[in-house]
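User: Run a structure prediction on this.
Assistant: Running it now.
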Amino acid sequence: MDKLDLINNKKARRQTRAALLGLSLLLIVGCGYRLYPTSGKIGPEIKTVYVAVFANNTPEANIETGFRNAFIDQFIKGRRFKVVDSEGSADAVLKGDIRNLILAPLSYRGDSNIAVEKRITVTLSLALEVKGTASPLWREASFSQWGDFTLDSANLLAGQASQKRALAKLADDVAEKAYRRMIADF
């Protein structure tokens, strides 16, 4: 093979790679999949959402605020809907009821009965309804999620702070998972 053949082979390989890359990009862009959520169940007429104050049926004080704020943040991140400050200016209303919160020990230190890790499980009833009706666009009566956290058994305040952080993360996880289900096409 002489020098001219080598140059032509390299050029042909580069052109083939470029063509394959272009074809791959075309297939990715042209397929039905999207990198963002769309809404098949919720029509385009629903543009604004109000997240109502959640009911708290647990002994844990003030967790309803954290869960409501997590849903507001998720709606803002999702960009599909505009979050509004009042039910009167919304097309749809998200209602939530925190039905149950369970704290269970997950692991113990040595031979003692002191928990060093706990699991926190929350169950909510959630409904996205057209404003002014009880007609649900989406509903889950027993939406459940859990998370684990570690405790510093030597320091009670640190354990309470760990639990508070775990609740905040759990609220974010619940909001993200529920939002994805709400706007899923299937």
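The beta strands are 48-51, 55-56, 82-83, 92-108, 115-130, 136-150.
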